[in-house]
């Protein structure tokens, strides 16, 4: 797996637990969502009721799980965690819902990946705090209504647009998480370094922040890798020089691109004259699956303004040529 992967890798969840902000005040950035959520929670506390269901949308690694945990903590309620792909049958969801107590917070990660029958059961549970559990099959099947104590659903999705309208409409509040500014990632790196008891200089921390692709999860992971380097190859302190050497070793460049990202740009510019070229051809040329190029490398290249998706294929932007240290071809300069 890549060091710049935005999803949690392997047993990383355990390492991350130590670095999670525990209150809304500890959360760095996302001012708008934070303020909106603070209001929702305070109002619910004032009424002595479970808050409205909350939908959090945004790319992986930006803090959706963290916010769900904070919502539960601020309400003084237990949190149950599950995910869309884990709920393959409506029965799986019924089992979870029937075990809930009043005021519990249920976090469903990747909620857009739930099965259709489970989704329909969830609509009803969210709206009426009731589900129909079907017992038996065929003509003898009976639906037994089951009351659910009022709870708060926190759903997370990479894109709110992936959710069917009826499900989206049942959330009282939707928070969109944005990529973080380098300045905010710098604060996160410093905070994490404090928790991990790692010494780092201001420019060392800024260097890690600027290569973290706007994503706290990646910032924290790069910090752990650079810490290893500092401990083994230096005197333990993360300076600018140590950060640069370590990240060079892990092949993360100054814009946060890794080997795969640069490979795609390199093939696109050097072999195909900057495109347009079809993604399948591009994938073969870098020796990767089409999906890997499309889902792993491209989103960040597009976001960074290095690659454009056009109807005729992928095109390198002038910034891509410059990034590779190549002269921008004349026909691309316009
Ligand atoms: P998601 O659920 O969106 O994939 P997580 O909530 O699991 O993301 O966050 C990933 C990691 O990044 C966690 O270790 C968390 O501590 C850190 N993190 C995310 N958002 C913030 C933030 N706003 N401030 C500080 N740390 C954050």
Defining traits:
334 residues, two-stranded antiparallel sheet, 9 strands, globular, binds adenosine-5'-diphosphate
What's the SSE blueprint?
Elements: H1 12-17, H2 31-47, E1 54-57, H3 64-75, E2 79-83, H4 90-98, E3 105-109, H5 116-128, E4 130-135, E5 142-147, E6 152-157, H6 165-169, E7 173-176, H7 182-196, H8 202-210, H9 216-233, H10 240-249, H11 259-271, H12 279-286, H13 290-303, E8 307-310, E9 313-316, H14 318-323
Parallel strand pairs: 1-6, 1-7, 2-3, 3-6
Antiparallel strand pairs: 4-5, 8-9
Helix pairs in contact: 4-5, 7-8, 7-9, 8-10, 9-10, 11-12, 12-13
The chain binds adenosine-5'-diphosphate.
Walk me through what this model shows.
- It is a single chain.
- This protein is of the alpha/beta class.
- It is built from 14 helices and nine strands.
- Helix 4 links the parallel strand 2 and strand 3.
- The chain is globular and about 70 Å long.
- The two termini are 38 Å apart.
- The mean pLDDT is 93.
- Bound molecules: adenosine-5'-diphosphate.
- Adenosine-5'-diphosphate binds next to helix 3 and helix 9.
- Keywords: ATP-binding, Cytoplasm, DNA damage, DNA recombination, DNA repair, DNA-binding, Helicase, Hydrolase, Nucleotide-binding.
